Amino acid sequence: MRRILALALAAVLLLGLLTGCAAAPAAAPAAPAPTEAAKAAEPTPVTLKWALWDKDLTVYYQPLIDAYVAKNPHVTIEMVDLGSADYMTMLSTQLSGGADLDVLCIKDIPGYANLVKQGHLEPLKGFASANSIDTSVYGGTVEQITIDGEYYALPFRSDFWLIYYNKDLFDAAGVAYPTNDMTLDQYDALARQLTKGSGAKKVYGAHYHTWRSAVQLFGILDGKNTIVNGTYDFLKPYYERVLKEQKDGIVQDYATLKTSSTHYSGVFFNNQTAMLNMGSWFIATQINKIKSGESLAKNWGLVKYPHPDGVPAGTTLGTITSAAVNKKSVNKEAALDFMNFICGADGAAVIAKTGTIPAVVNDEVIAAITAVDGFPADDNSKAALYTAQKYLEMPIHEKSAEIEVVLNECHDAIMTNNVTVDKGIQDMNTRVQEILNRK
Amino acid sequence: MNKEKKGLRSSRMMIYLMMILLAAMTVVPFIWMLSSSLKLSKDVFTFPMQWVPEEPRFQNYSDIWTRIPLGKFIFNTAKLSVIVTLLQFFTSSFAAYAFAKLRFKGRNFLFMAYIATIAVPWQAYMVPQFIMMRQFGLNNSHMSIICLQAFSAFGVFLMRQFYQSIPDELCEAARIDGLSEFGIWLRIMLPNSKPAISTLVIFTFVNTWNDFLGPMIYLTKTELKTIQIGLRMFITQYSSEYGLIMAASVVALIPVLVIFLSLQKYFIQGVASSGIKG
Amino acid sequence: MMVPNSVVFEPKPRRKKRLSKNVRDAIVAYSFIAPNLIGFAVFTLVPLIFALVLSFLKWDGANPMEFVGLANFSRLLTDKTFHRALCNTILYTAGVVPFTMVCALGLAIMLNQKVLGRNLSRTISFFPYVASLVAVAAVWNFLFSPTKGPINLMLNALTGIPIEELPRWAADKNWAMFTVILFSVWKNMGYYMVIYLAGLQGVNQELYEAASLDGANSWQKFWNVTLPQLAPTTFFVSMILIINSFKVYDVFITMFAGGDNQLSDTTRVLVYQIYNTAFRALDFGYASAMAMVLFLLVLGITIIQFRSEKKFVA
């Protein structure tokens, strides 16, 4: 009798579980709203799902949506935040699982190459020519993300690297401000002049964040080498320079920065470095943090990225953030239209107003950014926003994701003095070759 | 006699010394956490460290509720943790009873299969599982996390180990008295395994509470997200708000500690104190 | 304990009846297991088996799969990065498992005594386990920061060794593994202490009394009474510790990886390698093959442990 009770109880539990699980699918498919059939001449309501990261802390998402919806009231746009840390992996997982995302932000090139390989992205060439979209406004970046003659994303944000400097620290040291045609040697000399003090009050001349790009990519500014061609001997002088600066106490020690999770913004905000090489994304942050009182570096300026001898001033590293459309989107037409909006001139105007640099750069856009309250008033800072040549931090390559892993690892090993520069570069060569040779 | 007392006293001293050392090792980082939670993010990692912030910034503790929907996240996490813990407790203590005290064909094989699967890292089958869950229509629902977490083999393993230390004679005696297997589980096993139950409850609760990757993949809607995702929202692409992370971590710590404190007395109140011996 | 008690208590039944009793027993047993088993089978076992099948395939997560036989496995034999990851994982496991067990058992025995403030101490030692990993890893890294961290400043003051010659902890390839082991032990010992505490409550007090009568000292009591009585707990703790150590991932990522989620040669662990292979290189088949190796490794250890459990726990 009691055993029957036990059985019954187990059965009830089981049933409960099964129905619990079975009930859910019935409810879920009701959610994704419009279908193909609903598309008529008269605009029927459409809900687009837009995959992105840092939803609450990125200033331009909502303005973009507001501007678009104002013109297209039948469209609702829902943001899906996949987090910033492993965004491209999350996106790939979601798409492989068949998630109903429509518009996709693309965070980096290796991740983009992977999505293309997996066939998740809608090819855009046909769409672009049908809608007479001129890709030359993107300054050659579309060509750099073209794979086998086809491209699958359009950039909407195009950041590039420049030098942020702290005018108060220059004044205190009695050193003239840097100029827009600074060479790498001048940059090094300047950093040495500006290093002052010791202990907690020490001011460093320059600062390299722990990213590979902050050091390695000086090497590609001459356009002779790329970061995916499999030999890295050209990086040697640049590593030696930065390691020497590190040893001489001109810049903070990489190992300390990395283990203490020191963020470059804190270093700049606290007047601990006279110069910082960083991407243009930091402009908006710096302006906002001065307003909130967190940044003590109130008197600051911008100049172009330092360049090796023989390379024109204004040559710098670029990193693009682009938008794409899910190949399996059921609202493809609407998704393409929205993507076109954020990547086009209208979207660029909206983005520029937030102090962020859009992919379409023209005089109006630059004027909008420099007009942002808090942007440095001197002419050099304004001129610094014009670039001569931008090389992508990571060019498109079928195996860029794997190559990047190796380069990051070796960078880490060299910068922490765990291997010599020669050994580190040799490791890069052999391991990247191995990846390139594998079918 | 005297000598023994002396020995006892010195061993007591040793214990207290160790306890102080332990406290230093575990408490110091948390004091730092607390002090960082009252700083601006830029000052969190400055050397030399400031144990007491010059201008304590209590605003961090109000900011965390407005910058992200932390209240909602805490509610979601609490809801998930409670449901998962209850399910986990019932299903695994049932199964563990069979594995520990009943004899049936395939017992050892099945048990081995259970344990072996604990060994496979989740990352290896994450994608197939995600695809499957989507087909059930479970993604973007709390049900997905519940199904994922509630039937772990770990719980079965843990309970089985503890049930094994309960003497078989107890069960036999109960069987002779005419108790059903379910009755034995309810009247003998449960009351005698309070320490194990509290261990399992704490483990499951903490794990669900601190789980990150699961909710990250399955819950993409903001209103469904959990506290660990919320914490990482302060680490953005271009900046990390460590002051806020620390403040939110301190807040997130409290519910788990409450659970721990309320279960604490059961660790020392198992077989020994319920009057059943050997 | 391993004596089938049912035989002792029941009069010898006729063959046919006995069979049906076996069946009945099995039904009862399986009905106890079913609620867990079904959920477990559907949500874990099925995808897991699929993942294992994947190890014989080539798949990028989206395009059609392709059967490649044992190619993934033969590639493992020559993959130096994988070997490195395997060695690192084994090293980590070898460090963490015994270290954690000793600390946890020590703590449990200490805090099982009737001493002042033990409840507080228990709670305190549980702190690291419940705190979110992001926060405590940041704290830990900060404390152990090479040139300016409080730990090295203190070591410098105590020993007089100049800071430059002190270990650079997480930043030093020779110390990185040690640092992360230390961190893991610190973070998890509170939990295993709780398991041991629970186990200690099951120790038969009469055995201690008997041992006292025999004139045993505390050490002998510990060795001859406590430890054997704790055998099932120890078995469990070691099993879970080994498995968790083999599966370690989060700790390494949060300790070493910084923003880009990348690990270096000396800190690369198996699951990281699996994750990278699957999601960065989009080679799900190869990643599954690695997972398979991990699985077999742990399975082997489990079987050995089980054999010895039968020997010692009975």
Describe the 3D structure.
The complex is a heterotrimer of chains A (439), B (278) and C (314). With 439 residues, chain A is of the alpha/beta class. Chain A folds into two domains: 44-159 and 319-370, Periplasmic binding protein-like II (D-Maltodextrin-Binding Protein, domain 2); 161-316 and 392-437, 3-Layer(aba) Sandwich (D-Maltodextrin-Binding Protein, domain 2), CATH 3.40.190. Chain A has helices at residues 2-27, 61-71, 87-96, 109-118, 125-130, 141-144, 167-173, 184-194, 213-216, 236-247, 254-259, 264-269, 282-292, 332-343, 345-353, 363-370, 379-383, 400-415, 421-437; strands at residues 46-52, 75-81, 103-106, 154-166, 275-279, 300-303, 315-325, 389-392. Chain B is mostly helical and 278 residues long. Chain B has two domains: 2-36; 59-267, Orthogonal Bundle (MetI-like fold). Chain B is built from 14 helices and no strands. Chain B has helices spanning 2-36, 41-44, 59-67, 70-101, 107-118, 122-135, 142-150, 153-164, 168-176, 181-192, 194-210, 213-218, 227-233, 242-267. Chain B is flat, with a radius of gyration of 24 Å. The two termini of chain B are 31 Å apart. Residues 270-278 of chain B have low confidence and may be disordered. Chain C has two domains: 1-54, no CATH class; 74-313, MetI-like fold (Orthogonal Bundle), CATH 1.10.3720. Chain C is flat, with a radius of gyration of 25 Å. The chains are: A alpha/beta (439), B mainly alpha (278), C mainly alpha (314). Chains in contact: A-B, A-C, B-C. The interface between B and C is large, with 110 and 111 residues.
